[in-house]
Amino acid sequence: MQPSASAIPDFYYALFAFYEPALTILGFIGAVHDPETTHNTQAPWPVDNPPPTSLPKASIVTVIQLAHVCALMGVVNFFVLTAIRKHLSTQPAIQEKIVFALMTPLLMGDCMHLFVTLWALGDERWDVSQWSPMLWTTIVLGFSLMIPRIMWHLGIWRYVDACDRQADVATDEKK
């Protein structure tokens, strides 16, 4: 695939402005619809200690608030990336700087989310046969966003100013 003349070409735009917001909004809707199931399926439960049949109000509020923050991040992606493509379409170097400012903390968040999820599982983290479908979904979808963010940072399939800048722009900058 040839590099794009945009810092946020169609592949990344579709992924981060549509796929990621859709995931986060659906997660929020699921948490609002059934916060108990959302809570109880995050990690495996010991056989001799099943999940509670009802959650305290504080747990329900926490689950919904966390889901809301995730949905908000997805919506922010949509609006920021759409504005970048619309208003900076002729300035890929500036696009790259702004998208970098968005993608960097999101990549750090992806890495920390994976680390914290596995850390919180304790000794059961590697007993993948006991993972709940929700835990598998969390890990797989997390990688489905983290890997493309790493690709973006590596300059794969996108404009990279240091490499793709026009020769005449480089000469103008020296004057």
Written overview of the protein:
- The chain has 175 residues and is mostly helical.
- It has one domain.
- The protein contains 7 helices and no strands.
- The two termini are 34 Å apart.
- The mean pLDDT is 93.
Short description:
The chain is 71% helix and 0% strand. It has 175 residues and is mainly α.
Largest sheet descriptor: none
Question: Helical element count?
Answer: 7
Structural class of the secondary structure composition? mainly alpha
Distance between the termini: 34 Å
Task: Give the uncertain stretches in residue-range form.
Answer: none
Number of β-strand runs: 0
Present the secondary structure layout.
Elements: H1 10-33, H2 35-40, H3 57-87, H4 92-120, H5 133-154, H6 161-164, H7 167-174
Helix pairs in contact: 1-3, 3-4, 4-5
Pfam family, one: DUF7704
Keywords: Membrane, Transmembrane, Transmembrane helix
Organism: Suillus subaureus
Identify the notable features of this structure and list them briefly.
mainly alpha; elongated; 175 residues; 0% strand
